[in-house]
From TrEMBL:
This is Globoside alpha-1,3-N-acetylgalactosaminyltransferase 1 (FORS blood group). UDP-N-acetyl-alpha-D-galactosamine binds at F83, A84, V85, Y88, D173, V174, D175. One of its GO terms (molecular function) is metal ion binding. One of its GO terms (biological process) is carbohydrate metabolic process. The active site is at E265 (nucleophile). Keywords: Glycosyltransferase, Manganese, Membrane, Metal-binding, Signal-anchor, Transferase, Transmembrane, Transmembrane helix. The lineage of its organism: Eukaryota, Metazoa, Chordata, Craniata, Vertebrata. Signal peptide: none annotated. It is a single-pass type II membrane protein. Binds 1 Mn(2+) ion per subunit. Mn(2+) binds at D173, D175. It is found in: Membrane. Belongs to the glycosyltransferase 6 family. The keyword Membrane applies.
Amino acid sequence: MKIRRCLVFFSLYRCDENPAVYDLHLVSPDGMTYSQPSIVNGRTDVVSVTPWLAPVVWEGTFSATLLDGIYQRQNISVAATVFAVGKYIMFLKDFLETAEQHFFVGFRVHIYVFTDRPNEVPEVKMGAGREVTVQSVPSSNRWQEISARRMELIQKLIEERLINKVNYIFCLDVDSKFHGRWGAESLGGLVSVIHPGYYKDDRSKFPYERRPTSRAFVAPADGDFYYCGGAFGGLVQEVHLLAKTCRKNFEDDAKDGIEAAWQEESHLNRYMWINKPSKVLSPEYLWQDFKPKEPEIKIIRFSGVIKNYAAIRPN
Ligand SMILES: CC(=O)N[C@H]1[C@@H](OP(=O)(O)OP(=O)(O)OC[C@H]2O[C@@H](n3ccc(=O)[nH]c3=O)[C@H](O)[C@@H]2O)O[C@H](CO)[C@H](O)[C@@H]1O
Ligand SMILES: [Mn+2]
């Protein structure tokens, strides 16, 4: 058993075969010029590191030029998943068009669209090295199920098409648009986004699942941050483990007749409490259009559009 685990470790980190190692070894291209970093001056209005020493990404904490240089040299590939089931297909055009303008511009990007309406997927002109694949999925008469089943479909997508082929994956809500850069600064092993609705609240107020009978349970004195179900990602191996775990816990809960308060978002929050994200993205990476901008938000990169739930959800 011990030997097997060792082999798995080596196969994950051997640099010639698996790109995972690149996350640990950052090579700056020759001739790179960027502003001198300071060790005493920087953002002081926000916290940019977690208690487990993962970076929290805010505007003003990174050099986009440097990061693009490092990761372009590695020729990384990034997958993204987006689900547009039922009437949510109406959000897809803006999502894809704005992703072309802001999401990993200059990198190899492959967006997987999951929908029950493949004929209604809009034609969006994609740049060089960027493509969209449409995959049919069944509809459902419960939005909770559509949202939660994403974990199962992400798990399968990684197993069937991405593992050992693609470096990173991000899983995103479709009812949103990009407004600013979302790029290499967001890369990491396991990446989570702080939910814009609760980031100044006491942890006891977070909308975690509070029933101890659920596998998504988080006790009132526990929890670091409240993370979004609408955006998460990282290395495909890490996201595979996350999706597989959340799917199993969601399904096992269902067998016991319990559905967590915020479906897969609750399970994701439980997962991130135990498995600390190696990079945390600030609420710049998933804002909500109805929320007034806060002073610490210098740029909104991705934001949920205002929608009429009653008009677009199946239940
Ligand atoms: C910003 C954010 O973190 N949003 C999360 C939040 O509410 P939201 O209100 O943002 O959930 P939502 O209605 O956007 O549903 C989540 C996603 O599921 C897909 N979808 C949903 C319904 C439908 O009929 N068709 C369809 O395609 C679509 O990709 C949508 O973006 O809580 C949900 C859990 O319940 C999810 O965790 C969402 O990701
Ligand atoms: Mn949403």
